[in-house]
Known about the structure:
By secondary structure, the chain is mainly alpha-helical. Helices cover 74% and strands 0% of the residues.
Amino acid sequence: xxxxxxxxxxxxxxxxxxxxxxxxxxxxxxxxxxxxxxxxxx
Length: 42
């Protein structure tokens, strides 16, 4: 079994995903900040 990666197509996918990656990074950072402030009820 042989696999072939098309680097040009991978670049197209990476370029498409990039704006979403930064958006999700921001959202996870906000979530992390909220979770650090969260205190469980005793």
